[in-house]
Structure prediction request, 1118 residues.
Amino acid sequence: MSFLDSVLKVFVGDKSKQDVKAIMPLVEKIKTFEAALEKLSHDDLRAKTSYFKEKIADARKPLNAEIEDLLKKANETEDIDQREDIYLEIDKIKDTIYTVTEEVLNDILPEAFAVVKETAKRFVHNTTISVTANTFDREISGEKEYVTLEDNQAVWSNSWDAAGKPITWDMIHYDVQLIGGIAMHQGKIAEMQTGEGKTLVATLPVYLNALAGKGVHLVTVNDYLAKRDSAWMAPIFEFHGMRVDCIDYHQPNSAARKKAYLADITYGTNNEFGFDYLRDNMAHAPDDLVQRPHHYAIVDEVDSVLIDDARTPLIISGPIPQGDRHEFTELKPKVDSIVSVQRKYLTGVLAEAKKLIAEGDTKEGGFQLLRAHRGIPKNKALIKFLSEEGIKQLLQKTENFYMQDNNREMPKIDAELYYVIEEKNNQIELTDKGIEFLSGEDDPNFFVMPEIGVEIAKIENQGLSSEEEANLKEDLFRDYGIKSERIHTLNQLLKAYALFEKDNQYVVMDNKVMIVDEQTGRIMDGRRYSDGLHQAIEAKENVKIEDATQTFATVTLQNYFRMYRKLSGMTGTAVTEAGEFWEIYKLDVVEIPTNKPIARDDREDLVYKTKREKYNAVIDEVTKLSQAGRPVLIGTTNVEISELLGKMLSIRKVPHNVLNAKLHKKEADIVAEAGQPGQVTIATNMAGRGTDIKLSEAVKKAGGLAIVGTERHDSRRVDRQLRGRAGRQGDPGSSQFYVSLEDNLMRLFGSERIAKMMDRMGLEEGEVIQHAMISKSIERAQKKVEENNFGVRKRLLEYDDVMNSQREVVYKRRHHALHGERLRVDLANMIYDTSEGIAETNKAANDYKNLEFEMIRFFSMSSPVTEAEFGKLSVQDLAGKIYKAAFEHYRSKMERNAELAFPVIKNVYETQRDKFKRIVVPFTDGVKSIQVVTDLEKAYETNGKQLVNDFEKNITLAIVDDSWKTHLRKMDELKQSVQLAVHEQKDPLLIYKFEAFELFKGMIDKVNKDVISFLFKGELPQETTNAIQEARQSNKKENLKTEKEEIQNLDERSAQNRAAGNTQRQPEVVETIVRDSPKIGRNDKVTIKHVMSGENKTVKFKQAEPLIAKGDWVLVND
Prediction:
């Protein structure tokens, strides 16, 4: 704790104590119900749940009745404005229902929590509980072994199977667990130490909020915990008639997955909840939807889900044309050679630097040392040399000199390098020498991007024919596209070789590159690095290079979880990230006191000069502890170190288990053994999120579990997580971290003062420092990294917030189209927006002829105003007239379509209704045709109106989906290209927001016009009688993939783009406007010709531009 924190506590008070003090009256209130509930029979205890549900239903009843009346009105009225007002009123009432429900839940909280506690108590004290069997008991007895029927009695056992592990219920809620449960119901994060029973705590708010009948989601970090916890806690809820399910047991889009979401309580992993949301927003029928509206979620290990996973968006992608085309294999030998050439050259430079420094020439020696550090920062010999006395200070002093005046002198250092590595920012940049080396003598321009503007001017000045000029320009754009892609590929390959290490950031298993989670050491199955980096690593490791894909739907976990009406969480380590939780999710962190005081001995860090000394000290200590009969848990930061320590222990003949990303499937077995006397377990910081290491009495007497950390992690949370494995429920234990100046954290962010102090003390090999000041200094270094990581996550969220506002608009429109009830309002708004656009553009240009043309083009009708009226009316009045006429025209057209189709529908229904349930009716706009599926019976009962509704629904969904996919691709390209703004001293985010708004405005405008155009032109073909046929269930599945992309930070992106210029994958040649004739003024009159009808018209150039851009018209040279 800092001095400032200490002063604030004196004046303001301790926040955690104040939080607990505010909750304590509710805890006392819960206890007042305990005596009365103990006297109730089992049946009466169960009846409490029905009583609570009735209380909630009574509070909602008048509001639900109001919604029913309003819906009735909406269905009866044809006035679109009135309908829209009704729907807005319904939304407000739904918000009121939520508020009223929360008030009732707060009111019944003490008694409801007491009911859950009493239920847990009865399961502990009774091996079986007999109750009067109800329908739910009879149903569940067929599915679950712990419920059996005896006459009219249901017998509940207190032993059952929890995901393969037999358990007998033995837990009753402590007071501190009641505090945690209240905090979570209030929408806060409960920070509870390891072994305090977070899984049991969750039963309290889960039961209470499930009473509302809107569904409660309990989110876990992995499927093992989701399956285990859903099976472990289920009987407590099921005893009270609540359904419990786990989505990870069922296939996506299946009936079983849908049923799991309809349960009162649904367990599952964060990824699956997020992917189901995206899949639902790609569905084409209401029956395909699996999720209900997002009501309440409790996130287990909330720091892991909402912070560690926040940099990785969920993505559903599909194949793109020529997605298997890439240059990774061709460019790999070039990158291989440049990496080895630089390594070889800098090994010599480092040797020279050592020699010069030893001779006392620190100026030239420091110069050579900095050069080696800029080119091979992870070189083990360099890292070892930097741990020697005075060397790190010399490097920092030299670096400061060359970095002054905005890096003015740095090119002298980089002159002989082929590429430069910025390790702190995780970026890499080719130098001129590197580009020259890669290009070779054969083609010096192999990686040089053509200057588009200059090259076009050269082509235009050659006086060629239009055809030859067009061909040359096409070649130029093709060359630009190829080189842009090539530079992007090269950068990613360089990064794969120079910055990513096998068995550290990733492992190769089953001929696949799999990312290892830096926080937990677990393999993140299905996750890929973005922007082709994953393909580059696949090329480096000689495994199959996966095809490139296109994004169809995406969301970050941050924005997914912000959709819940109420969100809360639980973890052992949240307080260090409390600021981020509040800023991004508005979640407060409440520190829950432990049931018994913590007896663990947390020792100050031991700091060594080199890794070798540190590891030797670790092995000596572990051997001693193991021989004393204490179990030892060794925490490491990556697979490589865990394997190295494993070998060192094997040499000493110390029996041990290794748990890392390669052996993650054995986790449960290894953790179960970890508490045995003398047992040594090596784990990559992953040991047991969600699992407890239980100790025998003999082990407790020997001193309990010993935690040995071999390195400080970048994040304090992960170190606290490791420490928390020992000292559960008042058990004895100890924790000790071993640190060296060669560790990544100390190397990159460690204070200079530590290095200076060790130099001054003149420590010999193997000697160690241990002091509170050193530990504080290390903690400060960790804070620097945490701030940096928070900055990256916040920046990513700012970008995704732009996408999210667009996503909400598109998904809301999809939702309305899917369900149909609000679609007519959306269509009316589309007609009005299009009418307004037509009125504005043509009134501004005072062009009545173009107005007539656009009325025919979009609405298939003549102008509702004469030329004289057009001149007098204001834009607003003109738009209103166009809208009224267009809407009336549309309504009569749809009625005519229904009348035309009805005789055929009637005939099919009356003669073949036993054969057909749904039918397919073809519609056409004269160019494209679409097959509309409709319910035969509904179409017959509504005199064909259902068919028209389904026609509107199909068209809207098809056009919205197609435009959204294209828009997502453009947004991906925009996100990359705006990073170049850094070099112009502009904020890329601001430019991204502005450009994204323009792109989205264009997309919505296009969707409106395309939907309207098709609906107004849509006709039933004349031969409809024969065309109507049975709608068969299509089994065709799109080849879609779900993945989580590991996003690089924006410094990395700018470095990537700096070398490449604009590295867009597919420059859109069509959108590049090239002038091949004298410049035309915006108000000059020009003649344009319609490509389909051949019609000629003369308009001002500013009016012609948008028409030419759409491709329907071309400019005619006079």
User: Anything to note?
Assistant: The two ends are 80 Å apart (CA to CA).
